[in-house]
Design goal:
Length: 287
């Protein structure tokens, strides 16, 4: 948030904040009829996705949600995976899933009212990233007094921004946009990690899946601290699901079965992208 907070969630857990509500459209002439007359293609896994939103999805198929789509397609005997591409901006659901151009959003935060959620297939957490040896080693919360006066990078309108405001840390904050078209602008995760390495900011607070990927890609000696111990304000941990149309009950049940029967394989894909995974007791799941 993700989920698709969040990309799509340029931050997956925040997707619910990005997408505009839309009326239920007329049935698409090109959609296949699945179980119980649902408009789910029985032969092809049709995915709604952002074309340039690493580490989530990418037209090249390199994102972890691309890999998850291949896994789901194989488990459900779909012949192939196809994509309807649309950036993670207002109107994503309205222009993809809701007009039956595709049948699944691979990652979306639990509780998003624009879709029907499957069971969660992972939990992740916002993280605080800083350079090792900069005097912040051992920090565990946004409320830590050592953050006073630090230049903290945070995505606007996300849960950590609220907690920073409560801790009176916004005075020196550098805010990054929540909604952007990643076809023409780089990912905020990539930009924030670069700014941290170059010294433009002292600390970056990012959604875990995005942070994990870009911290690893940077090759820099950075600490990544899961924000598991926040005492006040917004919670930093979110469940991520797959999103389907509200009417597609049998489709949701099929996906829930895939999630239930293949959790270890799903976790392997996520860990390959350095995503911090959190169990139901709020403990990190080791690779």
């Amino acid at each position: 948030m993700p989920a698709r907070f969040p990309s799509r969630f340029a931050q997956t857990a925040s997707l619910a904040l990005m997408l505009a509500a839309a009326p239920v459209p007329a049935l698409s002439q090109g959609a296949g009829l699945g179980a119980a007359g649902e408009l789910v293609d029985p032969d092809v896994l049709r995915v709604c996705a952002d074309p340039s939103n690493m580490p989530f999805t990418d037209e090249s198929g390199e994102g972890f949600e691309n890999k998850l789509a291949e896994l789901v397609a194989g488990k459900l005997d779909r012949k192939s995976v196809t994509y309807t591409w649309f950036p993670s901006i207002t109107g994503f659901v309205r222009n993809t899933l809701r007009v039956n151009r595709c049948d699944i959003i691979m990652g979306i935060a639990q509780g998003d009212e624009l879709v029907q959620n499957t069971n969660a297939y992972y939990r992740s957490v916002y993280v605080l990233v800083h350079k090792k040896g900069d005097g912040l080693d051992g920090i565990e919360t946004i409320e830590d007094p050592r953050l006073k006066g630090k230049r903290i990078g945070v995505v606007e309108a996300t849960p950590p921004a609220s907690n920073m405001a409560a801790a009176k840390l916004m005075g020196n904050a550098r805010t990054y946009p929540l909604m952007l078209d990643t076809r023409v602008a780089p990912s905020m995760g990539e930009v924030m990690v670069k700014d941290l390495i170059e010294g433009t900011i002292d600390v970056a607070i990012l959604w875990g899946p995005m942070a994990g990927y870009y911290v690893r890609e940077s090759g820099a000696d950075l600490a990544m601290v899961p924000l598991l111990k926040e005492k006040t304000g917004s919670r930093m941990i979110y469940r991520i699901t797959m999103g389907v149309r509200p009417a597609d009950q049998e489709w949701k049940r099929s996906l829930n079965r895939v999630i239930r029967e293949n959790q270890d394989e799903i976790n392997k894909i996520l860990h390959d992208f350095n995503i911090p995974l959190i169990d139901e007791q709020d403990r990190l799941i080791a690779p």
